[in-house]
Inverse folding.
């Protein structure tokens, strides 16, 4: 049994015992190891932040669980089919996307989840970084291998955006909105960052990494001073902290369900659900398309590929595939 | 009908809810069908047509539903192209300050990244499928690219 597996078994026994004691003899029997080996596992759990009481005649008792998105915590009661079959927790990494991408290239199975407490080089768009302090937020990447041609891959952006906003609504009760294509906002402030990476041959997807960062319990002082757009966290917006493992589990479950639906029914139902939370529909916007200039129009929705549709002044429709959308 | 017109036609049909489209005249017959697994595009030209004018006959299934929309690159024997697998924005470098992935004349190994294409915040690092020399870069940095559009003219080494 792996170290993670052994710790998971111990935690499960604690959970079954509710807040009661589990004897060292019972732990060593279930794990099939010596009581000294059990004690070592208990010490490791303590180092991870679990508060475990030991009383010689009664055994061990779990008093407190750390607010860490540990693999053991995520797997506990995780109701998913594909996503999370393998979960790798890293206390610190450069970027969960980079790790998941490398594992994807090495042949990791669909559903792999890489999650970290802290990122030293959280990936943003165009070489920018995503602020990733420890102890407060969620940084997770999910590896998928949809049996689809590469041109279907951008639709996955809408799936992860929708999964994030549904998880936020479920856990915090807040009502997030979407800004095309992938921003999740609360009161107009950005609460999550999504960045997906595709590895493909000309006619098939090898894998896609869905990168998701959500500001959960970040305080105002923890935000970088030079942000490109106003940001918030669930703590700042909702007034109370969100348990990270609970949020991560909820997100993986939402994602798993949406991905299953996407594979079964295609993108249309998901794009419609995405659009429901997009408060820009009917509003005038301008889109900076980067190299090709500025387009002004009124948002009429998104099409079946996820492109943003604008009604222009002359009544014609513009189909936007890339660019920064600003309300005006 | 030339490839460009065919492409426009496919795009027009794709943007509607039409699932089947058929067009026939004296010279050619075009059938575009789409189903849940993708598009099937078939074109048939009468045998009488001269060889250089012959229309490609293509039929693709789920794995590469839009393959027929790929503009057939103008290739002489010597050169091949690296094409975009998705619709998106072409980037020659990983970030605005970073150096370009490749320049004309660069020799790249199989699997080496030659550019980035972004669509809906999904980033695709395009790799060379074989060792080659970049002969010409066919798109400008930050320019939109279509599905299947050639991005680089390359010489296989």
């Amino acid at each position: 049994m792996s170290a993670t597996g052994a710790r998971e078994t111990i935690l499960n026994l604690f959970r079954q015992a509710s807040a009661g004691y589990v004897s060292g003899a019972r732990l060593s029997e279930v794990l099939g190891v010596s009581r000294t080996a059990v004690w070592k596992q208990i010490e490791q759990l303590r180092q991870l932040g679990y508060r475990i009481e030991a009383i010689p005649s009664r055994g061990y008792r779990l008093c407190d669980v750390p607010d860490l998105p540990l693999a053991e915590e995520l797997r506990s009661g995780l109701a998913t089919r594909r996503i999370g079959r393998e979960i790798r927790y890293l206390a610190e990494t450069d970027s969960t996307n980079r790790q998941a991408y490398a594992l994807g290239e090495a042949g990791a199975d669909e559903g792999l989840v890489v999650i970290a407490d802290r990122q030293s080089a959280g990936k943003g768009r165009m070489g920018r970084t995503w602020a990733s302090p420890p102890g407060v937020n969620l940084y997770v990447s999910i590896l998928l291998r949809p049996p689809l041609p590469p041109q279907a891959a951008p639709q996955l952006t809408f799936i992860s955006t929708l999964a994030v906003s549904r998880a936020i609504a479920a856990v915090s009760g807040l009502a997030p909105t979407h800004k095309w294509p992938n921003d999740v906002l609360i009161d107009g402030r950005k609460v999550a960052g999504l960045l997906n990476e595709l590895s493909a041959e000309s006619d098939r997807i090898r894998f896609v990494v869905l990168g998701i960062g959500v500001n959960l319990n970040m305080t105002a002082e923890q935000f970088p001073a030079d942000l490109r757009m106003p940001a918030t966290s669930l703590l700042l917006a909702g007034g109370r902290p969100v348990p990270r493992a609970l949020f991560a589990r909820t997100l993986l479950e939402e994602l798993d369900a949406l991905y299953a639906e996407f594979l079964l029914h295609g993108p249309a139902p998901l794009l419609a659900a995405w659009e429901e939370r997009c408060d820009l529909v009917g509003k005038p916007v301008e889109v900076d398309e980067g190299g090709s200039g500025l387009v002004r129009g009124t948002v009429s929705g998104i099409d079946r590929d996820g492109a943003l549709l604008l009604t222009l002044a002359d009544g014609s429709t513009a189909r936007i595939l890339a660019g920064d959308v600003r309300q005006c | 009908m030339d490839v460009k017109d065919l492409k426009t036609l496919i795009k027009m049909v794709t943007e509607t809810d039409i699932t089947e489209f058929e067009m026939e005249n004296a010279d050619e017959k075009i059938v575009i069908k789409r189903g849940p697994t993708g598009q099937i595009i078939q074109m048939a030209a009468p045998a009488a047509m001269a060889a250089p004018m012959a229309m490609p006959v293509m039929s693709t299934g789920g794995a590469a539903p839009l393959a027929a929309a790929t503009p057939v690159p103008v290739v002489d024997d010597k050169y091949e192209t690296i094409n975009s697998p998705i619709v998106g924005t072409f980037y020659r470098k990983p970030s605005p300050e970073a150096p370009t992935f490749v320049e004309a004349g660069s020799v790249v190994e199989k699997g080496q990244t030659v550019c980035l294409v972004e669509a809906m915040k999904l980033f695709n690092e395009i790799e060379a499928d074989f060792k080659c020399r970049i002969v010409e870069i066919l798109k400008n940095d930050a320019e939109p690219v279509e599905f299947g559009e050639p991005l680089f003219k390359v010489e296989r080494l």
